[in-house]
Amino acid sequence: MNCSYYAHDLDGEASTQEGGHGDADKEVSYAGYLQLGKLLDCQKPRESTAHDELLFIIVHQVYELWFKEIIHELDSVMEIFETLDMEGRKMLVLSSRLNRILKIQNLLRDQVVIMETMTPMDFMKFRDHLVPASGFHSLQFRLIENKLGIKKDQRSKCKSQEYRSQFDSGDRKILKQSEEETSLLQRVQEWLERTPGLEIFWKKYKESIQDMLDAMEAEAKTLEEVNKQKNHFETILCEEKHNQRIARGERRFSHKAIQGALMIFFYRDEPGFSLPFQILQLLMDIDSLLLKWRYDHSMMAQRMIGSKVGTMGSSGYQYLKSTVSDRYKVFVDLFNLSNFFIPLDRIPELSSSIKEGLDPALLMNGNLNKDNSTLRSVNDKEDHVTSSDCQG
Ligand code: HEM
Description:
mainly alpha, globular, heme, tryptophan catabolism, Trp/Indoleamine_2_3_dOase-like, metal-binding
């Protein structure tokens, strides 16, 4: 684009509508398209003698713009998940969008470093003018959290109140609605529950665990050791015990979704499982980067204000530190999945019918129905697992 547009009018309107430059006038201008007039008129420092206030405003504004883009990507990602099976093309789009969110998050972490070029003394020059405004009130940040699946009751309390009370009634409505909408966590859960071949996999997985425990006993391990392992695996084999952990907030995914995730982790080298595995990795990366940002931001706050209260009146650094926690990890079950790994040589062989059904070449040739009925019929032929795995 021609940068000389800048010279005339930052909104690019006068020259295109009134300038009389022939056909060229009808062309879109750089400044007009980007609405630079409006955009660059939005930085209004409140303390004219504070040099760094412009930086403070711009950094926050840039965050909000990227939050907008993240929400845009998250909405599309959730829409794709809604109907996703193991179909390759959709998964590629999904993984590229998740990857884009990740790249933006990296950029957001880098911005903390830019903010830290401001010294605490320079911040003091204008901080008082900000009270009671705070990043705590970022509606878009809260929407991202809710869309990802952070639950209201898992949040740290701020000033002994729930976060929504800090917003005006219009925003409170928007936030409540976003809490009630289906989150990314739920969409991923439903997708994992649809993993083909789950029933037979779970039956074989349980058999492998039993074999492993028998071998431990045979190797003359102490009864205590064997029972410890048994109790450990029971928390995943027994649906009731798993659900108790969900109720305590220790786990988030349904029992069936955990099975799907384990299956994808175990068979990640199979062509049909490698993209789903990448997607699970990306989800963990997104979770991880959000938590790293929380940590970086809390350190920055401590550097700027020590242990003073925040501008909206929270305990400041103490409050922020409390959010760097597993309670804020949406896909915590994926992080903890390795608790239920078994030795590689005990991982059950994937049945050939499932392998074939998952071959991307077959998927692309349309041999797999859109609704995955080929794979379902494979499952239907397998034994139905009915035995109870809950003891005591
Ligand atoms: C000098 C720089 C900054 C300081 C000292 C600072 C400090 C704080 C403090 C103390 C809080 C707790 C709430 C309160 O009492 O105000 C907070 C919350 C928050 N700030 Fe900042 N902040 C800074 C920059 C930023 C930037 C650049 C962003 C980007 C949008 C941001 C986003 C947030 C968010 C989203 C929260 C809510 C976190 C949560 O509740 O989990 N902050 N900040």
